[in-house]
Design brief:
Blueprint (H helix, E strand, L loop, with lengths): L2 H11 L12 H9 L2 H8 L6 E2 H8 L3 H13 L4 E5 L2 E5 L3 H5 L9 H18 L7 E4 L17 H7 L2 E6 L1 H8 L9 E7 L13 E3 L1 H14 L2 E5 L7 E5 L5 H7 L7 E2 L3 E5 L20 E2 L6 E2 L9 H5 L5 E5 L12 H13 L1 H19 L2
Parallel strand pairs: 4-10
Antiparallel strand pairs: 1-3, 2-3, 4-8, 5-6, 5-7, 6-9, 8-9, 11-14, 12-13
Helix pairs in contact: 1-2, 1-3, 2-7, 4-5, 13-14
Amino acid sequence: MADVYRRLAKKLDRLPQGFPPTDSGIEIRLLEKIFPREDAEVALRLGPIPATVERIARTLGRPEGETRATLDRMAARGQIGSFTMDGTQRYALMPFVIGIYEFQLRHIDRELADLFEAYAPHLTRRVGGHQPALARVVPVNKSVDTRLEILGYEDMRGFIRAARSFALRECICRKEQALLGHPCSHTLETCLGFSDEPHAFDYFNYAGRVITQDEALTLLDATEEEGLVHATYNVRESPMFVCNCCACCCGFLRGLKEFGAPHMITRSGFVAAVDPDACNECGACADPRCPMDAIAHDGGPYAVEAERCIGCGVCALACPTDAIRLIRRTGAAAAPPPRDIVHWSVDRMSSRSGPLTRMALRTWLAYESRRHGHA
């Protein structure tokens, strides 16, 4: 019977990110592909706030050793999250995106790629149909007008320098597209996880490999030169990862370009501007460099279509005459993201379900945080 998978699908859809149902039931087939029935039953008993093995063992009514083995196996299969927090390994139910799907790096095959691609338009339009956006663009700082201040949450190198642990992984979007017969020319290993917890990825690293801070900073340089877009959680504090995205494969950017999902990823607080006197009309900034096709040439210097520009800054790095700079947006377009993932979750649920849900979620999060803080 598919009842356990339907219950899991409903539980995932109640998370702030969402896991919307379809008439075809493609989302159930995805869960059946990823979760054996007994693992789906365990996942149903987990919550989104990371908990210790001891607490989960009590919830499941199982011995701690058996519980740890089950949770480690499920984490290795990409079914749940596993995190080092305060020196203790904890486990949690993850959203489908960003989460379970991205964790399928070691297990994705053509069948899973086909299933996800069939679900992607519906999933993306629904997930990307509510504010605040799931992810946000972080600008290439070298592209920002030197007279402008770069805020802390706009400085990816600042996050990397403050972090203490790093794990580098392959891009699930490029792996999927290759399986579908659309191989990407961009570097495959570009997704970076980071944490302020020491040795955070020594126990579990989501099919990645542990790297140093210097290697992480070098990765940012290389991806910027390659024309990839920095994307991370849409929060100001502790974003935890940076994807380096291409427009041909990335689910965030495809959400904007192909699926009409305006809140899949939000623009940075900047917009590119071309100095017409310095532009030599070489086109290095435009197609295929610009991921959003926001730079056009109409019988004169190139110009930026501000509403299409996501403020990534990769165009400026390619300009041989230094004619492009990022300048600050104004008004609502420059509003800061939510403070952290808790505030993001509350804002998101309010957007999806209204103020009463927002109030209930704040109360529940406060209770759960206190309860698990003593686990």
